Amino acid sequence: MKVMAFNARPDERAFFDHFGQSLNMDLELQPGTLTVDNAGLTRGFDGISCTCNLPAPVLEKLAENGVRYAALRTIGYDNVDLEAAKRLGIRVSHAGYSPYSVANYTVMLMLMCIRKAVYIMFRSHTADNSLGAAGSARGMEMQNLTVGVIGTGRIGKAVIQNLSGFGCHIVAHDPYPSEEMKKMGVEYVSLDSLYAQSDIVTLHTFLNDETFHMINAESIKKMKPGVVIINCARGALIDTRALIEGIESGRIGSVGVDCFEGEDDVIRVDHSYNSHVTNHDYIILKSFQNTIVTPHVAFFTDQAVFDMVQCSLESLHQFDAGENVPLEVHA
């Protein structure tokens, strides 16, 4: 089987070499992203592995070149025109990976927010080692807080497991409550109840029409004054304008996000910085001393990268072998 891997980073090479050999693949790595302009490179290949957008024009070029399979190395697949893929007969898969990569990062952001890490580091860099006016560097302790987890799929469950050792009260919201989480003492509540109870709200749900901007001006009004909001899921779950207004008004105490609306304006596919940034909300969000904004790197661990490459190439191998690999949704 001939496979071309796009967006292939140097840190992935050892994993590509390992699985390419073990699956007996003729594998070619391309560091750049797949576009209509370079889709001709795929002529004669059976499948591709990528982390890029796959709109209809790109998929049409792939079909013309005889490509039958497209395997993403990401969980999300909202960057793929699935209707076009179905029409063109191209099978699509997405990757699962260690949920603890994002779950551990989520808890790190929580701790940094409640202990005001950015504010303290900023003061330290200016040689100000005081506790701040009126104790402004004073933080909170996790065991005294209620954490609201929205979405208890694989990552949400891993977050709850991580939090269980801190002694905090955990409430959750999910259309499909987990019996496993209930046995751990997690209380499932309505969204409004979660907003009202939680000192920390953390998002681990998928993005669709119902969840788009679920954190907005109205939902923020329902939250506790000084609430901490964490998002390591999808940027568009939060209305960034409303988030900024909540920070400016003091309604929101701290924010830790690894994703944000319009992040493609800021982060290129290869994770380099886009020098033509037009996302003004991003610039404003980063300017506050009580916000942490990171460039969609929560997933980036040795285990997760290994899992992504393995899942992508094994999916292509199974497609080629004629096995039925259904598209599964992971939160």
Cα Rg: 21 Å
Number of helices: 12
How much beta, percentage-wise?
5-15%
End-to-end distance: 31 Å
- Unreliable runs, pLDDT <50, ≥5 residues? 326-331
Taking the sheet with the most strands, its summary is: 7 strands, parallel
Net shape? elongated
The overall pLDDT average reads 91
Quaternary arrangement of the chains shown?
A: single chain
Which features characterize this protein?
12 strands; alpha/beta; five-stranded parallel sheet; seven-stranded parallel sheet; 15% strand; 331 residues; disordered C terminus
Model description:
The protein has 331 residues and is an alpha/beta fold. Helix content is 35%, strand content 15%. Strands 8-7-6-9-10-11-12 form a seven-stranded parallel sheet, sandwiched between helices. The protein has a five-stranded parallel sheet with strand order 2-1-3-4-5, sandwiched between helices. It is built from twelve helices and twelve strands. Helix 1 (13-22) packs parallel to helix 12. 39% of the residues are buried.
Short description:
The protein has 331 residues and is an alpha/beta fold. The chain is 35% helix and 15% strand.
Secondary structure elements and pairings:
Layout: E1 2-5, H1 13-22, E2 26-29, E3 47-50, H2 56-64, E4 69-72, H3 82-88, E5 91-93, H4 99-114, H5 117-125, E6 146-150, H6 154-163, E7 169-173, H7 179-183, E8 187-188, H8 191-197, E9 200-203, H9 217-221, E10 227-231, H10 240-249, E11 252-257, H11 280-287, E12 291-293, H12 302-320
Parallel strand pairs: 1-2, 1-3, 3-4, 4-5, 6-7, 6-9, 7-8, 9-10, 10-11, 11-12
